[in-house]
Amino acid sequence: MNEIAYALSIDWDKVGDQTFQLAVAFILSLPIAWNREEKSRGAGLRTFPLVCIASCAYMLVGKAVFPDPEAQARIMYGIITGMGFIGGGAILKTSSHVAGTATAAALWNTGAIGVSVAQGQYEIAVLLSLVSFLIFMLIPPIKHMSNGHHHPREPGGPDG
């Protein structure tokens, strides 16, 4: 019976630290998620936070189970590969058009935010979130104007 109680013991300090990290990952995913939701993309306010906190959680578990940095690097490689797979599913190609590449890149970036938070690299995570948000807010109008159009971009247009 004592072995069961020991196996079920919870380090509440660790729970607090991990809850904080998952909350930071969640919050940092919201600007990207909001933008993608606002643009009526398939991935939005549910997908981006889930991707970010899952990436963070996998890395946190990996750090707890495998203290060796090389093993942790393999977990990170797995997350990167998985994010590429998820992003690939967001890209739609027809004979004349490719859509979803910006959303796919944002999903990959959101995974990087989660991993950065899990590794305690909050500066990187904040910068990734901020730069992604700014790219989605500032580049589409510039891209649209450079294509010879001088009116505001239509919601749901081909960018992303």
UniProtKB/TrEMBL annotation:
Residues 22-144 form the MgtC/SapB/SrpB/YhiD N-terminal domain. Keywords: Cell inner membrane, Cell membrane, Membrane, Transmembrane, Transmembrane helix. It comes from the Bacteria. This is Protein MgtC. The keyword Transmembrane applies. The lineage of its organism: Bacteria, Pseudomonadati, Pseudomonadota, Gammaproteobacteria, Oceanospirillales. It is a multi-pass membrane protein. Its main location: membrane. The keyword Transmembrane applies. PANTHER family: MAGNESIUM TRANSPORTER YHID-RELATED, PROTEIN MGTC. The chain crosses the membrane at residues 47-66, 72-92, 99-118, 124-142. Belongs to the MgtC/SapB family. It is found in: Cell inner membrane; Cell membrane.
